[in-house]
Amino acid sequence: MSNSSLRSLFWLKAGAALLLVAAADGLFFMQRPGATLGLFALLWLGVAALFRKGWVRDRRGLAAAGGAVALAMVMIDRPGFLAWVLFGLALTIAVQSVRVRSGEEAWRWAQRLVVHAAVAAVGPWIDLFRMNRNNRKRGRRLKLSGAVRLLLLPILGGAVFLGLFASANPLIGELLARLRLPPLTDETVARVVFWLATLIAIWSVLRPRWRRRLIALPSRQGRTIPDGAAASVTLSLVVFNLLFAVQNGLDLAFLWSGAPLPEGVTLAEYAHRGAYPLIVTALLAGLFVLVFLRPGSETATRPLVRGLVMLWVGQNLLLVASSLLRTADYIEVYSLTRFRIAAMIWMVLVGVGLALICWRLLRNRSAHWLINANVGAALAVLAAVSVVDLGAVAASWNVRHAREIAGQGARLDLCYLDSLNGAALVSLVELEQRASDPAFKDRVAAVRARQMATMQAHQAEWRGWRWRDARRLDRVARLTAGRLMQTPLPGLRDCDGAIIPQSVTAPITAPATTAPPAPVAAPLTSEAGV
Length: 530
Prior knowledge:
Blueprint: H1 3-28, H2 36-51, H3 59-77, H4 81-96, H5 106-120, H6 123-137, H7 144-168, H8 170-178, H9 186-206, H10 227-256, H11 267-292, H12 303-334, H13 338-363, H14 367-387, H15 390-400, H16 403-406, H17 414-418, H18 425-434, H19 438-460, H20 467-479
Helix pairs in contact: 1-2, 1-9, 2-3, 3-4, 4-14, 7-8, 10-12, 11-12, 11-13, 12-13, 13-14, 15-18, 18-19, 18-20
């Protein structure tokens, strides 16, 4: 391709990037993102395919682009930060795949992505510097002194004549008086920062950066561990197995069997205190196996060591299962939250990682195989989580198991349901229909009315419209067909729907019943105690 064609392509990319920045400003700046986020992602992907045609002919590029399209569709349904990050990752892999050899491991891909993200922040300025340098080599550099001599007379002469016309013509004078630079407000600064961040992200895809020299993983065989160190590893495994056996034995005795705990220790306390430290213990155990028991090493080939490692990994898997059971018991007492769902998903991933470490040792797999398998499992889980609304899952579970409905379990935390920003709307409608206590039903109706009014207001704004929220409102319409929803009693409401007592000295005003009230009290959610 000739130099003139390259320059033309560069300026075409710059024009496309500026158009995308303008579209992002109109769609997202100071706006609640809706289905437009997914449409913008598809537009961005289309522009990238137009200028980076090489990855269209690459199987990895097509696979990554297919994943990006799927994530864009997810954002049309339910825009979210996780889906947006995964979309950016898939798009970056697609545009970089054309210059990456086939069979590249996840470890090397991670380095390329880190370099790409780091250099992207200064990418536009690097390209401008290179373009200026190339112009100097071709003798096309415009000297500053020449530019001043060129522009000095037109600017000064034009200013003088414009001033004279303004004094002679009131229309021109009034027009010039209205011309002012925009004030330097917080919104102006935020908009400039938004433009720069958007331009950097878009430009990094149109002109991706890559690195040829990468950091390799340590050798598979590694150095031979001295006999003393091997004996120390064997003794460590014996000690670790004994300690883990004590912990697992206590869990089997009190947690799994349901036996009564010692006096002064509740099941919730026993479950909550141990769930997360035990996961850290399992992670440290996996790190120990990775460092001291590499496949092919002399220590890893000893039958006694292999047997101790298998036993230890098995005990770690039991430890992870106990952590899951602890979290489940804690949820029975204090209800379900998004954070606790994410914690249980993380525990399952830790268990998968331990099983993969064990399989690697048994089958003599490489470190690259282990990293690829773990990255694949993590990406699959993250993609699933980006589709599923954990808030709606938590709300549905809490309503079904609430003490106010089931007669046992945790008291329903309406403040937490109110903080889910519409994810709990369907569950609140179902709860309102099933509640029998008039006071509780009124509180639920108040929270439901606030959530529904907020969602309807967002759906009325085309930039904030979301497909999933539209389906939620349709579900509410079907649930309430033929029956009227309860109108809450007048008065200002707290986050749990309770009426806030008015001050004696406060002026009497007409209370609002359907519109969302003024700022409510902070949610008293039990998630803060996790």
